[in-house]
Amino acid sequence: MIKSSLIKRLLKNNPHLIQADVESIVKIVLKNISDALSKKGRAEIRGFGTFSVRHRNARNGRNPRTGEKVVVPAKNVPMFKAGKSIRDRLNYKS
After folding, report:
1. What's the chain's average pLDDT?
2. pTM of this prediction?
3. Which of 10, 15, 39, 51 could bridge across to 43 with cysteines, CB 3.0–4.6 Å?
4. What is the DSSP letter of 88?
5. How confident is the model at residue 14 (pLDDT cuts 50, 70, 90)?
6. Residue 23, C-beta contacts closer than 8 angstroms, at least 6 positions apart
7. What is the 3-state secondary structure (H, E, C) of 23-81?
């Protein structure tokens, strides 16, 4: 789902809200998550999941086109861990 489709779905489910308000709310939530991650913190949304930052060490890789060895530098990457309720919904057997 992309941000614009999220906004459309929120508007559809909440017709009493104004589009500009929904857009600003979504922007604020995403900005706060980004700010927390940029400070190497974490952001948790109860019932949904947790966003955090993980460090990946430098490693040797290969260019898939040429097969040449390439050094991949160390970096920080965002991670998402789904909450229990989402995992239960995904793995529900009817």
Report:
1. 94
2. 0.76
3. 51
4. H
5. very high
6. 7
7. HHHHHHHHHHHHHHHHCCCCEEECCCEEEEEEEECCEEEECCCCCCEEEECCEEEEEEE
Structure token digits, residue 24: 């600003």
Q: Which two tokens stand for residue 74?
A: 């160390």
Q: How far apart are CA 93 and CA 24, in angstroms?
A: 37
C-alpha R_g of the chain: 19
Could you tell me which of 86, 90, 83 has the C-alpha nearest to residue 46? 83
Q: Among 78, 13, 85, which Cα is nearest to 48's?
A: 85
Phi, psi of 90 (to 5 degrees): -70, -35
Tokens describing residue 23: 């857009």
